[in-house]
Amino acid sequence: MDVRREHFVLDGTDIAREFIAHTGAVAVLAMDERDRVLLIKQYRHPIRTRDWELPAGLLDIAVSRR
Q: pLDDT-based confidence at 25, cuts 50/70/90?
């Protein structure tokens, strides 16, 4: 992973944002026959609370790229 900072202009204001760049991830949108979506409640330390989110994870390094 790599921490990056980018500067840009939004509505006339100069802004800097930091973000993590990594090799890739995947998320799953699982729906049932009644169009209900599966979410998990996961603790996220930056916001110091649990948050509802889609099941997700990093891509396995062994995934072949065609």
A: confident
Report helix, strand or coil for 46: helix
Q: What is d(CA 56, CA 39) in angstroms, rounded to the nearest whole number?
A: 10
Contact between residue 16 and residue 7 where contact means Cβ atoms under 8 Å apart:
yes
> From the CB of residue 54, how many other CB atoms can be counted at a distance below 10 Å?
14
Global pTM reads: 0.54
| Confidence (pLDDT) at 64 | 55
* Structure token digits, residue 5: 């900072």
Cβ atoms of 22 and 14 within 8 Å: the answer is: no
26, 10, 8: which is closest to 18 by C-alpha?
8
Nearest to 63 by CA among 11, 36, 26: 26
